[in-house]
Amino acid sequence: MLGSDLLVLKAECERALVRALEDGKAHGYTDEWCTWLSADDHLAHAYTHLQGARGSTQPDRLMHLQHALCRVAMALVRDDVPNCARGEN
Asked: What is the extent of the structural domain holding 23?
């Protein structure tokens, strides 16, 4: 069972992922992120967002952190889900 702090963290991460995916969709990105970028590409994008977050103020800082989290999650799925690389998910 997760403690209350971890439940808050989990909920915030889920909200951040949803916001970042919605932002991506609004900018024309498709749901095909699993096939057209490697895990290393996603990590490079995450790093760019982390650099953007440094020294930024709200709301830009929050946006960059949300997008970095999303890119790390995409890299994790890209590497760990067997059918992801073949676009079968």
From this structure: 4-86
Contact 66, 16 (CB under 8 A): yes
- CB 66, CB 19: distance < 8 Å: yes
Task: Divide the 89 residues of the chain into consecutive groups of 10 and give the mean pLDDT of each group.
Answer: 86 96 89 81 96 95 96 88 60
Total tally of structural domains belonging to the chain: 1
Angle between helix 4-26 and helix 60-80 axes, rounded to 10 deg = 90
The whole-model pTM stands at 0.83
Q: How far is CA 81 from CA 10, 13, 78, 86, 87, in A?
A: 21, 20, 6, 10, 10
Which segments of 27-59 does DSSP mark as H helices, in order? Answer: 33-36, 39-53
pLDDT at 89: 43
